[in-house]
Amino acid sequence: MTDPTLSFAQLLARGARRPALLTRLARALLEDALQGGCALALEDLRISASDLRDEPAIGGPDDDDRPLVLSGTGRIYLRRHFQSERVLGEAIRNRLKPVQAASVIEPKLNPAQRQALALGLSAPLTLIFGGPGTGKTHTAGALISALARSAKEPLQVALAAPTGKAAARLREAIGQCEYPMLKLEVLTLHQLLGLSPHNEPLDDDADPMGHDLIVLDECSMVPLGLLAALFKRSPPETRLLLMGDPDQLDAVNEGFAFAELRALSANPKNPLHRVAVTLTEQRRFSATSALYRFAEATRLGHVATALEALKDDPATLSRHDFNEGNAQLLLGHALDHYRALSTQPLEEALAAQRNFQILSARKTGPFSVDAINQAARTALGESQAYFENQPLLIERNSRAHGLRNGDLGLLRRDEGELKFFCLDSEGGLLAVALTDLPAFRPAYALTIHKAQGSEFAEIAVVLTDIASPILSRQLIYTAVTRAKQKVRIYSSVAALSQGIDSAPKRVSGLADWLPASALLDRVDQLHLPF
Predict the structure, then answer these.
(1) Order of strands across the sheet with 68-70?
(2) Residue of 256, 263, 192, 275 whose CA lies nearest to 229
């Protein structure tokens, strides 16, 4: 089978002064891009900038006719990625202007949340970093309420996220925000930007957006190009609040822009430091619970501490060997869960569906999502691909039917016809004929990527039995933090340890576009009546 990265690299190398060198460079860059990377450092490739002098395919930042860009700081990019990084960096720099920051006296928020609220009221850009249960959406709700209370004119607010399901969850988590002047929209980021999935985000002809405040959640899932487009399309007077967990999985496309913003803001000398807040006070788990300690140890890459946490509370957190016997027990547990749902009234069953979910690191192959879903169908003796009480995951938005990418639901017969039932954003029952559904798949098991942004009471995480490049601390951390109460991990100790110890190498030039000093200085106090 032809290697597409090699073929494309060879195409880029046509007419090169050093064809073998350029083929190697281009192939490494393309392979990195397929893994979500945006650039490579020449020193990591052991290539000198002088070796690339006068190569026709490589240009500088302003050579728009060259497919590859060599920065002045020794990084090589695909031009599309370089342009996205440049647009994002310049847009952020333009928002880092001196402002009068305010501190907030509000007893319902902890000190970090009050700091974030003060920034949101004062600065055109606010970054909130934090793991699950740290109060990010609660803080966003406090900001919206504070702005709406004092609004003299209609306040246009957009709540956005990478997927429709995540956007709806953001709206649910923020709760009731009903003020006469508040105009609230809930959108996917593509909808907000007016893009189809195949549009180029950085469209020079796109009109500016007219919102007073844009809250973007789950920012770790947002590709660099979309984030750049959001900043480019947002007028200077629009407040931007970006929030998410930078330790979760990066975007499937060119990723880790949000994680890079967190890394830069951690430096007190960087101007981003003054517009960023990290929330750490945990409200979902006790800081002494085995699940919380395992998640934190995984996030930090502390293998020994993570393995110790696995021994403390088997009722909450447990590891199981990766073998056929345990696979059968897990499948039986899952089928018992869905059999119980089939006996419940529909609304109760849909609410209870999130009590348990299998997550897998793999989409195909042994112990993968596809394998588990097929095993479930076989164990149930179903000859048809789709059948009553089967769980489904919606993979594409359908505004016509009210469906969102990420919706989970069940197939049930209604008047002799198989229909997909799920709960809508208001908690009401939504029914769509199976033949009318957009892209969907069986959901006895989901990939960890697909589960990002969702929550379940109990999860089973199926990893691998041997060390594998697909395992990383981001993947494992994202998986275990989907659970509210209980986690079972199916993996060998060796594979789990390798995954926790493995972190992606990120190369970014975002810092090149930012000013060298912090710009917010003065602090006043605001007393807010809420």
Answers:
(1) 39-41, 75-78, 68-70, 58-59
(2) 192
Write down the pLDDT at residue 285: 78
Per-residue pLDDT at 246: 94
What secondary structure does DSSP assign to 455-486, as a single string? -EEEEEEE--SS--TT--HHHHHHHHTTEEEE
Helix (H) or strand (E) holding 413: strand 408-414
Q: Taking each helix axis from N to C terminus, what angle separates 4-12 and 19-34, rounded to the nearest 10 degrees?
A: 130
Residues 509, 39 contacting (CB under 8 angstroms): yes
Q: Is 356 exposed, middle or buried (0-12, 13-18, 19+ CB in 10 A)?
A: buried
- Residue 512's nearest CA partner among 264, 290, 279 is 264
Q: What is the pLDDT of residue 110?
A: 92
Longest dimension (CA), the chain: 72
- The first and second tokens of residue 298, run together, are 């995984």
Cβ–Cβ < 8 Å for 241, 137: no
Q: Per-10-residue mean pLDDT for the chain, 530 residues long?
A: 71 82 87 85 91 88 88 91 94 84 72 92 94 92 89 92 85 78 89 78 74 95 93 94 94 83 93 94 83 95 96 94 90 96 94 96 92 95 94 91 91 94 85 95 96 93 88 95 95 95 88 69 36
Q: Which is nearest to 131 in space by CA: 515, 518, 480?
A: 480
Tell me the two tokens of residue 409: 């639901």
Find the angle CA(511)-CA(217)-CA(205) to the nearest 5 degrees: 70
In angstroms, the Cα distances linking 145 to 113, 150, 171, 228, 427 are: 14, 9, 13, 28, 23
Nearest to 245 by CA among 353, 133, 81: 133
> 273: helix, coil or strand?
helix
In angstroms, the Cα distances linking 307 to 195, 320, 492, 498 are 44, 13, 11, 12
Q: State the Cα–Cα distance between residues 242 and 217, nearest whole angstrom.
A: 6
Please give the Cα distance from 74 to 72 (Å, whole number). Answer: 6
What's the rounded Cα separation, in Å, for the pair 467 and 496?
A: 8
Q: Which residues have a Cβ under 8 Å from the Cβ of 237 and sit 6 or more positions away?
A: 124, 212
The structure tokens listed for 360 are 């897998």
Give the strand order in the sheet containing 276-279.
Answer: 182-188, 155-161, 213-216, 239-244, 125-130, 276-279
Under 8 Å between Cβ of 151 and 124: no
- Give the end-to-end CA distance of the chain in Å, rounded to a whole number: 63
Burial class (CB in 10 A: 0-12, 13-18, 19+), 417: exposed
Nearest residue to 499 (alpha-carbon basis) of 478, 470, 479? 470
Q: How big is the chain, counted in residues?
A: 530
For the entire predicted model, the pTM comes to 0.90
Q: How far apart are CA 44 and CA 75, in angstroms?
A: 10
Instruction: Report d(CA 352, CA 354) in Å as an integer.
Output: 5
* Best CA proximity match to 42, nearest among 2, 13, 72: 72
Per the CB < 8 A criterion, the answer to whether 496 and 322 are in contact is no
Sign of torsion, CA 369 445 219 189?
A: positive
